[in-house]
């Protein structure tokens, strides 16, 4: 599984915190996607990198038939708990264990950027989509529209040697994701930004959610928990509300593409 095995291990640390505390905050993104594609009853729906199943649950509530694949075992358990009749598989989105032409909708919500080979992964999405099927990719919008970037910048500042890679906004620039999608022969239908703020009741919940993420788990391999926690407490101070809640304004983007006949 290569990189998927690494990511699965990192995201497996506190799956229930992620599922219960963070995924509900992304509902505006998923609702916008399903409204745009007019997700209908009976649609064969694949969530590629399904996490704790938040997007699957909303799709199920619209009548879709749910399939999900995820690299983190405990995340997968959460997804199965949320959608008991869904078909969930532990695996790598770059190597999908499904037949050709079997899904009406393939969703990749903040998962494509973690794959080892984005082109090969998109080709897999295309392969398993039906003719005229839809492939939807979502991720962070451009950095200036994402206040959550302060978290990434704070963590990066604590490393003596900067982590490899171009960071969480590598595919977020104007036209970058769209060009990548078009390179595998998919037709772009919609490219849209969605307002999706994160509101945490207090710093403890904010910390639990962030500690559950792959990037912070990677950071904790070389940075002490006390040091990292103190740094995040410092950088979120401007986002504190009078009642102690933390409000972080964000936009996500998504691109809807179509597999032509």
Descriptive notes:
It is a single chain. This protein is of the alpha/beta class. It has a single domain (3-146, 165-199, 251-258), classed as 3-Layer(aba) Sandwich (Rossmann fold), CATH 3.40.50.150. It has 11 helices and 9 strands. Helix 2 packs across helix 5, helix 2 (15-22) packs across helix 9 (203-211) and helix 7 (149-157) crosses helix 11. The longest helix is centred in the first third of the chain and has 11 residues, at 27-37. The radius of gyration is 18 Å and the shape is globular.
Q: Please give the alpha-carbon distance between the first and last residues.
A: 31 Å
Name the strands of the widest sheet in spatial order: 3-2-1-4-5-9-6
Count of individual beta strands: 9
CATH topology heading: Rossmann fold
Main pleated-sheet profile: 7 strands, mixed
CATH class: Alpha Beta
The chain-level mean pLDDT equals 94
Domain module count: 1
Low-confidence stretches: none
Helical amount:
25-40%
CATH superfamily: Vaccinia Virus protein VP39
Count of helical stretches: 11
Task: Give helix and strand order, one letter per element, not per position.
Answer: HHHEHEHEEHEHHEEHHHEE
SSE blueprint:
Blueprint (H helix, E strand, L loop, with lengths): L2 H8 L4 H8 L4 H11 L6 E5 L5 H8 L3 E6 L2 H10 L4 E4 L12 E7 L8 H11 E12 L8 H9 L18 H7 L4 E9 L2 E3 L2 H9 L2 H6 L5 H11 L10 E3 L2 E8 L3
Parallel strand pairs: 1-2, 1-4, 2-3, 4-5
Antiparallel strand pairs: 5-9, 6-9, 7-8
Helix pairs in contact: 2-5, 2-9, 3-4, 7-11
